[in-house]
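Weekly puzzle thread! Below is a chain. First person to post its structure in token form gets bragging rights.
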Amino acid sequence: LNISHSVRNVGQVLQTYKDDHDSWAATLEYRYVAGSKKLFVKLESAIRDFVSKKEDRSFVKSTLDGIRVRHNKYGRSTSLLEPNLKKSAGGLRDLHALLWMYRDVYADFLPGVEYKLKEPAILGLLTRLLEKGFINQLQYNHTSEAFEFVLRTRQSLHYQSSGLNDLLDFEIQKKVAGDMGYVNPDYTKGIESFMR
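Winning reply:
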């Protein structure tokens, strides 16, 4: 588990929007864990007010540019033979980027003061997109099922690799496919079915 931290006042947190888009993306994932609830409410209110009033879209542009660079490095195709579950096209980072961009543009997509992590933030985003009519039920179902499948696959990959690993390479595909229930006496068909 990699945990990073920083110490900033409210003004410095808002300044990350201009100075450090990676830190701003992390800020958009905020939630109260412990400490002064009064200070957290002040921070949450400042972030919500800032997002509501700003018209600058440099974070969205930077995020889209980052997606292009990442896809060039880790693969643009969603049918790679050895995908990186986090960073290749269609991977988890694409959904995270979508979450950050919506939260950066629409204050009502930000988590509230009483936000508790009951479900992955991505599923919460998809629910909000469905409620607002940005996606239909079929799109919601397909995307949420794909997201959960990638999460389960990544969890199995970490377990089979005995640690952090996002590259689903040939050597480990059979083990992960077996974990995920894709068992076929014909080795190739089981893995092919899993990788689709």
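Puzzle host: Confirmed. Bonus trivia for everyone else. The CA atoms of residues 44 and 113 lie 7 Å apart.
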